[in-house]
Specification:
Elements lengths: L3 H28 L3 H22 L9 H25 L6 H12 L15 H29 L5 H14 L3 H25 L4 H12 L17 H14 L3 H8 L5 H4 L1 H24 L4 H16 L14 H10 L15 H19 L8 E2 L2 E2 L2 H27 L4 H12 L7 H4 L10 H15 L3 H4 L10
Antiparallel strand pairs: 1-2
Helix pairs in contact: 1-2, 1-3, 1-5, 2-3, 3-4, 3-5, 4-5, 4-19, 5-6, 5-7, 5-8, 7-8, 7-9, 7-10, 8-9, 9-13, 12-13, 15-16, 16-17, 16-19, 17-19
């Protein structure tokens, strides 16, 4: 296998990351923090390694096949995480490389789990770097979902190559135009939410950082108490809308801007997402209001924010919902696996796969009632191929399998049941907080053993790259020519 195109692209990505490191370096320099030296040094190291990879693997005609694309996707995520961990490891926070790698993987995978204690007093450069990692990871996963995953036929994502090919090709003849359009839209959303959060009472720095992690559905905050630190209904509403915006397909936003005003709401995936979210929010708010004797509007405010946060995999928190009762904990646990829409910044199982599973179940029930009948599964008014349904079923099995194995491995390291199971779930679904007093909304992952942090980092990678992309590399047949 020719690794030159893979290493060449990894080199380009490293050089791009090195440029990003200069931004927190300038911020630390402005605020008089010593960590600007760390960011500058890490930037030069990344630039040197990336430049060397580019020079040593330059090719006249750069083309990659599907096997190379699988390797590139996983390798680039690992290399960028390893480089992104350097500022954490050598900063004044005095983090071990294990903690630094965990934090970087959590950031670039937009998970939002953290091992840092004392965010309120952490250097501004580190806080911005965390936000920047999630912001870059968010746009990276959108581009992957539109351009890479359909080509690799991962977990039913080929459905969107078939579904969007005609529309996308007519609106944007070249893939570069789609990428540029998404990048500009992503940047515009970030700027808009930063302005709204600033207007609602955040400092300019906090507003920018939270806007970046909101649109990316990442969840890193500049405060230990997350969004609960501000105790503002206006901020809660703004961020809830931002998380929902990041959880919808960005390609549909572009189609709306091109004059297809109803593109977003014609999409069945969007309608399912809204219906599921609203149903859970209203139902849990009513239960919370009645069971815990709180005002319904108060319950609705906190339920809507935290359900949308967990469902989209953002991971912000405004309260410790683990204290609401066993029913609420159960709801939040299962909600963390749902995810948002394909082509968004979210992870998890994703809405379109739930739709496909529903169609498969409906067909099976129909066959039981009418054994000789002919039934066809549909998605967005188009028939589903057997290839897509098999991919979705395989994805769901492997997703659950990886979750169970990860939870068992964490339990074997001495973690209690709630901590092990919720940590595995939040890692594989890229959510952020787990459940319970240790890793719940009011805790973090600092006290976990190093082995558990490495296992969770692997879980974050597997979940972020749609399971198949990583696991296929473990097959010996993959490496045979």
């Amino acid at each position: 296998m020719d690794f030159r195109p893979i290493l060449f692209i990894v080199g380009i990505l490293l050089c791009t990351l090195s440029i990003g490191m200069f931004i927190p370096a300038l911020v630390d320099l402005y605020y008089g923090q010593r960590d600007w030296i760390v960011f500058s040094a890490a930037s030069f190291v990344s630039l040197f390694v990336g430049g060397a990879l580019i020079m040593m693997n330059r090719m006249d005609n750069l083309k990659i096949n599907s096997r190379q694309a699988f390797i590139l996707t996983t390798l680039s995520w690992l290399v960028l995480t390893a480089a992104s961990a350097l500022p954490f490891a050598f900063s004044d926070l005095d983090m071990s490389y294990t903690d630094a790698f965990f934090e970087a993987m959590s950031g670039i995978s937009t998970t939002g789990s953290t091992v840092i204690v004392g965010l309120d007093t952490a250097p501004q450069g580190i806080l911005l770097w965390r936000a920047l990692l999630q912001w870059l990871g968010g746009i990276g996963i959108i581009v992957m979902a539109i351009a890479v995953m359909p080509m690799l036929r991962v977990g039913g994502m080929q459905l969107f190559r078939m579904e969007n090919s005609d529309k996308s090709d007519k609106a944007f003849p070249r893939a570069t135009q789609i990428a540029m359009g998404i990048a500009m839209l992503y940047l515009s959303f970030t700027g808009l939410w930063a302005i709204m959060l600033w207007s609602a009472g955040m400092t300019p720095f906090d507003a920018i950082a939270h806007a970046m992690t909101t649109i990316a559905t990442g969840g890193f905050s500049t405060k230990d108490a997350s969004i609960g630190h501000y105790d503002s209904a206006a901020i809660d509403v703004i961020i809830t809308l931002g998380m929902a915006t990041g959880a919808l397909p960005f390609i549909l936003y572009l189609q709306m801007l091109r004059g297809q005003g109803r593109a977003l709401f014609r999409d069945s995936q969007v309608r399912w997402f809204i219906t599921i979210a609203v149903s859970i929010v209203v139902g849990l708010a009513l239960w919370h209001s009645e069971t815990n004797n709180v005002d319904f509007l108060y319950a609705l405010r906190f339920t809507s924010f935290n359900i949308v946060s967990v469902m989209t995999g953002t991971g912000y928190a405004t309260t410790d919902y683990g204290l609401w009762g066993p029913f609420a904990v159960t709801v939040f646990f299962f909600v963390m696996f749902i995810g948002g829409c394909a082509g968004s910044t979210t992870c998890g199982v994703k809405i379109f796969r739930l739709q496909v599973l529903y169609e498969i179940a409906k067909i099976q029930l129909s066959h039981m009632l009418r054994p000789h009948g002919v039934f066809i599964a549909y998605y967005n008014r188009k028939p589903l191929s057997e290839d897509v349904t098999e991919s979705v079923l395989s994805f769901f099995f492997l997703f659950v399998f990886c979750f169970v194995v990860l939870a068992a491995a964490l339990g074997a390291m001495g973690l209690d049941f709630i901590t092990a199971v919720s940590s595995a779930g939040t890692a594989i679904a890229n959510v952020g907080p787990g459940l319970g007093p240790i890793v719940g909304p009011s805790g973090n992952f600092a006290t976990l053993p190093d082995g558990a942090k490495w296992l969770m980092s692997i879980g974050m990678l597997i979940g972020r790259l749609e399971v198949f992309t990583v696991l296929v590399l473990l097959f010996p047949a993959f490496w045979r020519d």
